[in-house]
Each structure stands twice: as structure tokens, then as C-alpha cells.
Design brief:
38% of the residues lie in helices and 13% in strands. It is of the alpha+beta class and 462 residues long. Bound molecules: iron/sulfur cluster. The site of iron/sulfur cluster has 13 residues, from helix 11 and helix 12.
Length: 462
């Protein structure tokens, strides 16, 4: 006989929410590592001691984490999902009949108390400390990279940069435009590069008009990750304008901040060629004493069959190059009464062969066919580039490059699984908030996967 589901309306139910959340549910693993007591303490000074009780900030943070961990990008939809999903209710400590806050509560708090207290960075750093306590960060090596995330603005509503006048912005401009004005002198935004993009979006002027790998151009921010290459834990995150100078600057900011906050300094840093400028390598090698497993950003390699700089041997003790014909290239061929700096107008010292040697040299067609003598520019930080070049031939470099893929996998996961391929919030602060929450969610998911349910959570010392 075919059964019929009776829709009986019982007056009382014996229902325990905890029993209905599977033991291996991802949110259970995340909950085990989440301790928001310190976050509550950090927010306390930003709430009045009188008046009506506010919505619990812990509830809002738990809901935001559900959204970023589960790839729910809209706050309206997040409220609906938390209302309907038992596991989400359990994670947010809402019970069966707990009231869900209105979606507008999130934007009000984000623009107010959350940004004033920098609570999202506190939250991110709390989770990094948890990763440290669980032994997931060994600081043997870090990897750094940046990925472009589309900004929430439209090309059709943009202006050509010639038609844009930042001086016309005033106090009544939109919030993202006011944030743009406030970051004009910031090395991660306005001061990163003097170049002006082709188009500017009036609704989010800090977003950079850029193209990724020769694809179509779009407005974007750069998300910068510094990760530990052992387990792929994100140890720092930074939002910047999508230009190389800003991304390299962000890598230095993140390395310094990680050392200051957690006492972590990596043995080596691995990154792509964008980070291989002489200045950045010199900072790593001479100032921070970090081994750079980074390909050198080098434009001296010739592909027309002529000798490259690498065909000349550098002798640091004698301060000269030896050319393939065995002749010396030096900075000065005589002693000047007034000592010369040896630096040319472009700020780069040059080493020159002797005109007499080159004139009669059989290798001249391969060396300097159109010049009377060969000149080799040598950057003041060339010694740091030499260190990186020497490392590039070692097996350790191969290993570090393989480990660097972990940061690219994190960006792929962020865009495909967590669905953060386009920002929802505008302005530098919006990008910063979204990147911090996304990095926190990725670290929590990693903690839940690598340190699953076993035992009780040990509190982290304050
Ligand atoms: S042309 Fe001059 S610099 Fe070049 S190989 Fe000959 S001697 Fe050396």
C-alpha cells in the first residue's frame, strides 16, 4: 500500500539543533577553531554603555564568515540562507527561533564600528595565531603574489582620464570617491605610480583600469597574499591598486608586518619575475637577509645573437668586467683631479671597454657592431641581482618555485569556489574588508581540513 505523508501539526517538538548538524560538517571544523572573545573585547570601546542593546557583533561576524566560507556573495541572500539552513543557524548560535538581522545592519556596522576598530584585521590575525598554535606555519619559506579582482564598476559609465578632474570632488562626493582622495598619498594606492590610467570610474576612482595577461581590460584592485609555503596558510593580506609598483610595495609591507605582529621572518621568499627588480632584491638580500628565490627582472638579455651582459664576467674584487675577448671593461681609465661619481645621467653606472681593444677585435660584429666600444650598465644593486641569479641555478630554487604554486591555487580557489571574482564593496576600504574576510575564511577552511574534530580547543594566550 502506498504510504501518505501526514502533515500533522504537533504542538510541541523535542528538537536539538546540534543533533541535526552532521559531525563532519565543515562549519563544525571551523567553529572549533573560532574564538571570538578577544574580538568582542576589542569592539567593546566602540559601543555605548547605555541605551538599547545592539545586535550582537559576534552574530554579524559569524554570519559574514558563513557568507565568505560558503561563497554566498550577497548579504540579502546570506540572511535568507542563515534563516533557512540549520547548520548555519547552529554556527551563528541562533537556535531555531533566533531572529536574523536585517541585511542593512552589515553595511551600517561595516562603515562604522568595524572599520573604526579595524576588527576584520584583528579577526584575521586571530586566525593566523590559531594556525601558528596548531603548528601549520614553520616560516621556512614564504611565497608572495597578487591577483586582480574586478571592481564593482562599469566601463560604460567611466570617463577618459583627460575628462576627469579629482579637484572637483568635494565633501558631497560618493564614499568611494572620498576614500580615493584620502589614499592619494598612500604608497599602496595614489602614490604607487605617477602614471594615469586610460579610464577612470567616477563611482570608484581608486579602481585601476588594467588588463590581465593581455586579456580584455577592466577595473580592478589587486589582492596581495603572503603565504607560508609549508601548509599554504595566508600569513598576511593587503589590498592595493593593480600596478606592479604597488604590489611590490605591498610584499615589503606584509613581510615587515608579519615580523612585527607574529615574530615570523621567512628563510626564503619565492615570487614571480614582477618581484625581481634590483631594488626589491636589494631590500630582501641586504636589509632583511631573506634568500630570494625570485627570477631576476632583467632586460639585458639579447635575442639578436649579440653578446648579452651574462657573456661578460664580473670580477667584484677588481671592480671590472672581462669581455669574451678577455679584455677589461672599467668605469674609469684614468685618475681625475676631481673624483667622478661614475653614475650616468640615468642614475646607472656604466663599464666601458677600451676603444683601441674594440677597434681591432674579431668579435666586434657580435658585440657592438654599431658603436666604437662596448658599454655595460651595472645597477648599484647588481650584487643583489647576482645573488638571485646564482640561486636560480640551484635545486632549492626549483623546490621553491613548485611551492609558489600554492599561492596561485589559493587565488583560483578564491575565485572559483568562494566566488570572489568581483568585489561587492567599493573603494579601497571595501576592497580591504573583502580581502581580509576572504583570507580569514580560507585560513579557517584550511584549519578545519588539516586539524579536524578532535579534542577541545585550547585558548590562545593573549
Ligand atoms: S668588441 Fe670590445 S668588448 Fe666586445 S669582445 Fe671585442 S674587445 Fe671585448
Amino acid at each position: 500500500m502506498m504510504g501518505v505523508q501526514a502533515a500533522t501539526a504537533r504542538l510541541f517538538y523535542d528538537f536539538c539543533l546540534d543533533d541535526h548538524v552532521p559531525a563532519d560538517h565543515q562549519l563544525r571544523g571551523i567553529d572549533r577553531h573560532l574564538d571570538l572573545e578577544r574580538i568582542r573585547a576589542a569592539l567593546q570601546p566602540f559601543y555605548s554603555s547605555t541605551g538599547r542593546p545592539s545586535i550582537d557583533p559576534e552574530l554579524m561576524i559569524r554570519m559574514l564568515l558563513v557568507g565568505y566560507c560558503m561563497g554566498i556573495r550577497s548579504e540579502r541572500r546570506l540572511c535568507e540562507e542563515v534563516h533557512l539552513n540549520l547548520a548555519y543557524r547552529w554556527f551563528c548560535r541562533l537556535g531555531l527561533d533566533g531572529k536574523i538581522p536585517d541585511h542593512s545592519t552589515f553595511s551600517r556596522n561595516r562603515r562604522g564600528r568595524f572599520r573604526e576598530s579595524d576588527i576584520l584585521r584583528h579577526l584575521f590575525e586571530n586566525i593566523v595565531e590559531r594556525c601558528l598554535a596548531e603548528g601549520l606555519v614553520d616560516a621556512e619559506g614564504f611565497a608572495v603574489d597578487a591577483s586582480l579582482i574586478s571592481a564593482d564598476c562599469n566601463k560604460r559609465r567611466s570617463l577618459r582620464s583627460e575628462d576627469w578632474n579629482a579637484a572637483e570632488l568635494n565633501e558631497e562626493a560618493c564614499r568611494a570617491a572620498r576614500e580615493y582622495l584620502a589614499t592619494l598619498d598612500d604608497a599602496a594606492f595614489g602614490a604607487a605610480s605617477p602614471s594615469t590610467p586610460k579610464f577612470i570610474s567616477p563611482s570608484d576612482p581608486a579602481a585601476q583600469w588594467t588588463a590581465e595577461r593581455k586579456g580584455h581590460a577592466f577595473f580592478a584592485y589587486a589582492e596581495n597574499y603572503l603565504i607560508d609555503t609549508d601548509h599554504g596558510v595566508i600569513v598576511d593580506v593587503e589590498a592595493t591598486r593593480a600596478v606592479r609598483q604597488a604590489e611590490v610595495g605591498a610584499s615589503q609591507t606584509m613581510l615587515e608586518r608579519t615580523e612585527e605582529r607574529f615574530g615570523l621572518k621567512p628563510g626564503y621568499l619565492t615570487a614571480d619575475t614582477a618581484y625581481g627588480s634590483a631594488k626589491n632584491l636589494a631590500w630582501l638580500v641586504k636589509q632583511k637577509e631573506i634568500t630570494p628565490h625570485i627570477p631576476v627582472f632583467d632586460k639585458s638579455i639579447r635575442i639578436d645573437g649579440r653578446f648579452s651582459r651574462s657573456d661578460f664576467t664580473w670580477d667584484p674584487d677588481a671592480d671590472h668586467y672581462i669581455c669574451p675577448a678577455g679584455k677589461e671593461l672599467v668605469q674609469f681609465r684614468r685618475t681625475y683631479a676631481t673624483p667622478r661619481t661614475g653614475v650616468d645621467a640615468d642614475g646607472i653606472p656604466r663599464y666601458r671597454a677600451s676603444k683601441k681593444d674594440c677597434e681591432v677585435c674579431a668579435l666586434k660584429p657580435q658585440c657592438c657592431p654599431n658603436d666604437v666600444l662596448r658599454k655595460i650598465p651595472r645597477n648599484v644593486d647588481e650584487d643583489a641581482r647576482d645573488v638571485a641569479r646564482a640561486l636560480a641555478a640551484t635545486p632549492e630554487f626549483e623546490v621553491a618555485c613548485r611551492r609558489r604554486k600554492k599561492v596561485e591555487m589559493l587565488f583560483a580557489h578564491l575565485k572559483r569556489i568562494l566566488r570572489l571574482s568581483r568585489l561587492r564593496l567599493r573603494g579601497p576600504c571595501g576592497a580591504k574588508d573583502e580581502f581580509l574576510l576572504a583570507a580569514t575564511a580560507q585560513n579557517l577552511r584550511r584549519l578545519a581540513k588539516l586539524r579536524p574534530m578532535s579534542g577541545q580547543m585550547e585558548p590562545i594566550a593573549a
